[in-house]
Amino acid sequence: MAGAATDGLTIVLTSVPAATPPDATIYIAGSFNKWQTDDAAYRLTTSGGGQYSITLPASVRGPVEFKFTLGSWDSAELDTNGAEIQNRKFAVPASGPATYSDTVQNWHLPARTIAELQQELEKILATTHTPGLSVAIVRREGPEWIAGLGKADVASDRPATADTLFRIGSVSKAFAALAILKLENEGRLSLRDSVRHLAPDVWFENRWEATDPVRVVDLLEHTTGWDDMHLREYAKDAPDMSLADALAYYHHSRISRWPPGTRMAYCNSGPAVAAYIVEKITGQRFEDYVTQNFFEPIGMKTATYFQAGAAQMATLYRDDGRSPFPYWNILFRPAGSINASANDMAAYLAFYLNRGTVGGTLVLPAASAERMEVPTRNWAAQAGLKYGYGLYNYTTLDQGRVFHGHDGGVTGGLTKMAYLPDEGVGYAYSINAGNGDAFARINKALRAYVTRGLAKPKLPAAGPLPDMTPSYAGWYEPDSSRNETFHFLERLGGLMKLRIEGGTLIASPAAAFLGQEARFTPVRGSTWRTEPEAVATAALVSPPDGQRYVVIGMQTLKRIPAWLAFVEIGLTAWFVLAAAMTLLYAPFWMLASVRKTWRRPHELWIRLWPLVAVLCIVAGVVIFQLASEDLIDRLGRITAWSAGLFLATVVFALASVASVIALWSARRSPVRRFVYGYCAATTVALLIAVSYFAYWGIIGIRTWA
User: Is the residue at 222 inside a domain?
Assistant: First the structure.
């Protein structure tokens, strides 16, 4: 028992919330017990007066992270507002006893009834300023709860009901996969068919087409290698444009960046091409085909790809819950245009839970429903990893349970659909605001409710350490960017080191502030799982090119030489330090320049141009941040925002070059040596940044093009 030790870390809870059940058992879960939430050895004991304590084993030393729970993550501690809290941290001394004391502000107490759940959800809407919610909880036998809560429209005070249509975003994608599977079952195509063969009039570029063609399955599993839609495509408001015209509008994002079928990278143009293939084969408009073959048979009576009447729709809002967004007519409707009610989503969930059968009528064979849930194409899937992205249907984990489904997001609206096929239960919900905090809290409340009473999956025993594991130790960088525009940041921010300790694989981010390390236990073959998950979520892969890759979740990382990692870390730190020092130094020399006796005109330009360059970087970041809530409209077209970002990057490059010229001109001037050296070091850092940004196309970036 952990409490038997006397010279380790003693943790004391001086008070707990008044709502703590009198028979509650409080546990501590942390890095020292593989984050097990109901480990009997880490159960706190009460000492009266509302205090609880535990002493950890003396072997627990160094930095530790932990949280308190009532036996599961569904009943973990929260802050006073009911929101998630960061892990608690403490550095245990190398020897001797230590004490940590604090309080628990709040618990998440899972709802036990629909009435309690509704009360919890309404509280979340109120505290997060989220207007309305559409929700459905369904079991295999039938719906348990279908409702609308809050407001569909704030201005008119119109309530959300079970019939109110919400935007479900990318949850729409699955219908393109369902249509393809139906045609495959009819023998009219195969998932292995070449897209070039089926739709030769759709433009895309794949330099590996002769050996690794883009196949239909690649469209559905996001393994085409294409970049995601560019902002220009997102910004095109085209309510009446045909699918063929939409695909012809702009095609420069559909270029394979690696051999298709190797890495997964989310791409919104894939569903559009898949839907176009459906149109080519059936001779029907895709939206009509889906309505006839899926919406109607499933029982989604009001679902539509098009804008309905205002009285039927939920208005979408900004994070303040009051300022509305206009209706967004998405260019590629199959990727995210569906409007659906809680009643529609309940019927849709039942379709999956009953494996393609609705009311005793087979809509799609069970094998097809199961196929949607399994990835097959990418390297990790070929290595045996079942976790990941199937046919527009992906897995998420919760305390060892494997949920299937999809999320969706449009400007001002978020949706989630998730289900447990073996347990026969699922839920779906939509909100009419882009509030991520509300979305996460609603998800936690619903997930806790539908899983109450379900047995926690047993963790499998650790498998043997694969023989090739030591050869994978080293540095890795992301190599499957969704948006190529941001790859220049991802490859630096996602830099990671893998190491092996005993039988554990440890992935550590290069910068500790970017995240905590992840520990993986071997499962079978080259697949690995994290604690306390029961299924593998990572794989070590080595394709024919001889390169080493690791897939963690849905991200592929490529091994790079240690020297390159150190160079990248060093140069990044140099640039960040130079930029910070330039901003900090500027007020002092500018103030000095005002005073006649302190003026040093020979030093003016060598200090001014680096400042201009750094201010341009700051301006670019500020423009992007301020434009983020209206990112598509502000940056997907030529606006003051997009033009400002373009100019900021151009002036940054010009000012950096001007810094070089100023330094060269001042080399024989009476400039103080330390000032010249400082400005020279800053200028070199700026030139390195300019070269890096130019390589990735950031200098003179035209987000509207």
Answer: yes
Q: What pLDDT, in 10s, does the model give residues 198-225?
A: 999 999 999 999 999 999 999 999 999 9
Pair (345, 360) in one structural domain:
yes
CATH of the domain at 290: 3.40.710.10
Last residue of a domain, one of 425, 451, 477: 451
The type of residue at 353 is L
Beta bridge partners of 676: none
Whole-number pLDDT of residue 3: 39
Instruction: Give the separation between CA 2 and CA 8, rounded to whole angstroms.
Output: 9
* 101, containing H or E segment: strand 98-103
In terms of domains, do 394 and 531 share one? no
Asked whether residue 306 falls in the same domain as residue 233, the answer is yes
265: CB partners within 8 A, 6+ apart: 222, 223, 225, 226, 227, 228, 257, 480, 481, 482
Q: Do 446 and 491 fall into the same domain?
A: no
d(CA 526, CA 250): 40
In SS3 terms, 454-511 reads as CCCCCCCCCCCCCCCHHHHCEEEEECCCCCHHHHHHHHHHCCEEEEEECCEEEEEECC
Are the C-beta atoms of 498 and 506 separated by less than 8 Å? yes
Of 251, 219, 218, nearest to 233 by C-alpha is 251
pLDDT, tens only, 516-529: 788 899 998 899 99
Q: What is the DSSP letter of 146?
A: E
Domain with 61 in it: 2-107
Is the link from the previous residue into 297 a cis peptide, with omega within 30 of 0?
no
State the DSSP code for 338.
Answer: -
167 and 25 inside one domain: no
Using an 8 Å Cβ cutoff, are 506 and 447 in contact?
no
- Geometric angle at alpha carbon 170, from 117 and 151, rounded to 5°: 40
pLDDT in tens, 390-440: 999 999 998 889 999 999 999 999 999 999 999 999 999 999 999 999 999
pLDDT reported for residue 598? 63
Residues comprising the chain, all counted: 705
Query: Average pLDDT over the chain, rounded to whole?
Result: 93
266 vs 258: CA distance, rounded Å:
14
The predicted pLDDT at position 1 comes to 36
Residue with tokens 């849905």: 554
Tokens matching residue 36: 């097990």
The pLDDT value recorded for residue 81 is 81
Eight-class DSSP state of 363? S
Q: Say if residues 57 and 10 touch (Cβ distance below 8 Å).
A: no
Residue 319: what pLDDT? 87
Quote the pLDDT of residue 599.
Answer: 67
How far apart (Å, rounded) are the C-alpha atoms in residues 137 and 353? 12
The tokens for 403 are: 């949920």
Q: Which strands make up the sheet holding 62-69, listed edge to edge?
A: 27-30, 62-69, 88-92
Among 560, 588, 610, the domain boundary falls at: 560
Whether 115 is covered by a domain: the verdict is: no
Same domain membership, residue 408 and residue 269: yes
Task: Return the amino acid letter for 669.
Answer: S
Whether 704 is in a domain gets the answer no
**Structure tokens, 46:** 């009460």
- Crossing angle of helices 640-665 and 604-627, rounded to 10°: 160
624 and 641 in a single domain? The answer is yes
Helix (H) or strand (E) holding 39, with range, is none
Structure-block tokens of residue 434: 């882009």
3-state secondary structure of 569: helix
Q: How far apart are CA 495 and CA 559, in angstroms?
A: 10
- Number of domains observed in the structure of the chain: 4
Residue 701 in any domain: the answer is: no
- 447 and 476 part of one domain: no
Q: Which of 188-192, 349-353, 592-596, 669-673 has the lowest mean pLDDT?
A: 592-596
